[in-house]
């Protein structure tokens, strides 16, 4: 096939302990999926229908690479998340079949230009300029579910320069992983290579150049990156 311009390199994530890599198709993010975070963001902690936004596959930052502080913002926040990687998809996936789609898990950061996001909220506009900017999705290597199973409980936390900022437990997810997959498949045709960032616990806050971010999800691993 002849392209009029060179095609972009495919986005991918490494797989822990493997030379193979995981090709990334889309990145779906779940908003306000921990009650305490919903409250701190001015939302309702009750179990409302989930809502989603997207990041772009080339927003990923891999292998502990630096996170460059983005332009057009003076208030960039960290949001630590469990990442779910799908090895197959479909539409209208039944709840009892949803976990069959999961390849594995990772630790991710949904970096957010909060000032731009807040401006979008006030005007009723989409969040892309606050969420889907370059290098806004640092992510660890993926760990296959065949090795670790499907984590349903365990600590999730983020330290900034060694000081704990965010802390929660996976059992506090309002919408659980199979529910997210099933619900998303009613809205989109999920594909092999899709990632789902499952939401963040309370404690989100600003980062500054020079900060060292260390995130952890029990049973999955850790992610470290520096803000530059």
What structural class do helix, strand and pairing data support? alpha+beta
Quaternary structure of the protein: single chain
Strand order of the largest sheet: 4-3-14-7-8-11
Structure summary, number of beta strands: 17
Gyration radius from CA atoms, angstroms: 17 Å
For the record, give the distance between the C-alpha atoms at the N and C termini, rounded to a whole number.
39 Å
Number of helices: 5
What is the fold named in CATH at topology level? Fumarylacetoacetate hydrolase, domain 2
Strand count, sense and barrel status of the largest sheet are: 6 strands, mixed
H/E element sequence: EEEHEEEEEEHHEEHEEHEEEE
Helix content: 10-25%
Task: Compute the number of structural domains.
Answer: 1
Strand content: 25-35%
Could you tell me the mean pLDDT? 95
Level-1 CATH class name: Alpha Beta
CATH superfamily name? Fumarylacetoacetase-like, C-terminal domain
CATH architecture: Alpha-Beta Complex
Write a structural description.
- The protein has 228 residues and is α+β, with helices and mostly antiparallel strands.
- The chain has one domain (12-226): Fumarylacetoacetase-like, C-terminal domain (Fumarylacetoacetate hydrolase, domain 2).
- The protein is built from five helices and 17 strands.
- The protein has a six-stranded mixed sheet. The protein has a four-stranded antiparallel sheet with strand order 13-12-16-17, with no helix packed on it. Strands 9-6-15 form a three-stranded antiparallel sheet.
- β1 and β2 (21-23) form a beta hairpin.
- The longest helix is centred in the C-terminal third of the chain and has 11 residues, at 177-187.
- This is Fumarylacetoacetate hydrolase domain-containing protein 1.
- Pfam families: FAA_hydrolase (PF01557).
- It comes from Polymorphum gilvum (strain LMG 25793 / CGMCC 1.9160 / SL003B-26A1).
């Amino acid at each position: 096939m002849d392209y009029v311009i060179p095609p972009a390199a495919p986005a991918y994530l490494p797989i822990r302990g493997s030379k193979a890599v995981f090709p990334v198709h889309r990145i779906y993010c779940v908003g306000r999926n921990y009650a305490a975070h919903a409250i701190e963001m001015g939302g309702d902690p009750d179990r409302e229908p989930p809502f989603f936004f997207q990041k772009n596959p080339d927003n990923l930052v891999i292998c502990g690479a630096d996170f460059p502080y983005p332009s057009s913002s003076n208030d960039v926040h960290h949001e630590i998340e469990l990442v779910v990687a799908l090895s197959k998809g479909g539409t209208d996936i039944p709840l009892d079949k949803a976990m069959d789609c999961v390849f594995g898990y990772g630790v991710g950061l949904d970096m957010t230009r909060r000032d731009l996001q807040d401006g979008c909220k006030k005007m009723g506009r989409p969040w892309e300029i606050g969420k889907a900017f370059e290098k806004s999705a640092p992510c660890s290597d993926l760990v296959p579910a065949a090795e670790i199973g499907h984590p349903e409980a365990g600590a999730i936390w983020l330290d900034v320069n060694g000081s704990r900022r965010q802390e929660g437990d996976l059992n506090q997810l309002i919408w659980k992983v199979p529910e997210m997959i099933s619900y998303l498949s009613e809205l989109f045709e999920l594909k092999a290579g899709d990632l789902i960032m499952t939401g963040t616990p309370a404690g989100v806050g600003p980062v500054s150049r020079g900060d060292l971010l260390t995130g952890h999800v029990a049973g999955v691993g850790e992610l470290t990156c520096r803000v530059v």
